[in-house]
Amino acid sequence: MLTVDNETKELGLLPFGKPFNFKYSLSNKGSEKIEVTKLVKGCGSCTKASCDKTIIEPNGTANINVTFTPGSTGINKKTIQVLYKVGPLTHNMSLVFKATVQ
């Protein structure tokens, strides 16, 4: 079973156009290997995301490193879909982050 430290991150107040880096920590709580197959970003131009491991061993961890460069002011809410496989089955997990941009 794949778990995340916090599915929704509150980034607070961010300046317009300045990159902000943060991460999500994933944990494999199951007894089978998990393969992270794809990250789908809700905003391809303002969000960059990568996973530091494609295979997460049982009781192992991985990080999704994110860079968000706000392209609009006001409240920004973005998502990243994590697609992963456990054995032959494909699953997904939604990660959300929010920021107020000035």
Report the oligomer: single chain
Poorly predicted tracts of residues: none
- The proportion of residues forming helix, as a percent range, comes to under 10%
Radius of gyration of CA atoms, rounded to a whole number: 14 Å
Structural class: mainly beta
The CATH H-level superfamily is Immunoglobulins
Shape category: elongated
Q: In order across it, which strands form the biggest sheet?
A: 2-9-8-4-6
Integer count of domains: 1
How are helices and strands ordered from N to C? EEEEEEEEE
Q: Cα distance, first to last residue? A: 38 Å
Nearest-integer average pLDDT: 97
Main β-sheet: number of strands, strand sense, barrel status? 5 strands, mixed
Identify the CATH class: Mainly Beta
At CATH level 2, the architecture is: Sandwich
Number of helix segments? 0
User: What is the number of strand segments?
Assistant: 9
Description:
- This protein is 0% helix and 67% strand.
- With 102 residues, it is mostly beta strands.
- It has one domain (2-101): Immunoglobulin-like.
- It is elongated and about 45 Å long.
- The model has no long low-confidence stretch (mean pLDDT 97).
